[in-house]
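Work Package 3 (structural annotation) set out to generate three-dimensional models for the target panel prioritized at the project kickoff. During this period the team completed the workflow that converts sequence records into discrete structure tokens, so that structures can be stored uniformly alongside our sequence database. As a representative example, we reproduce one entry of 69 residues exactly as it appears in the project archive.
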Amino acid sequence: MCLVIAWYGFGVTIADFRGAERDVRSFDMPRWLVVGWIPLAFLMMAIEFARFLWRGEDFLAPIAELLGS
């Protein structure tokens, strides 16, 4: 799911860059600078989840240890 969101976010970022879209809520800046973090963040999450799957680790194990389960 993270890869799907990253893929579509990348498409939005490229479209904003090509169309020279502007975001003027508080600062006048290119919109691709605002939305460009979305695909990057979701790509990094996908890599992290893939790492857990590859190693066979449980990413909730530290929480389970804290709760005493």
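Residues 2-49 form one domain.
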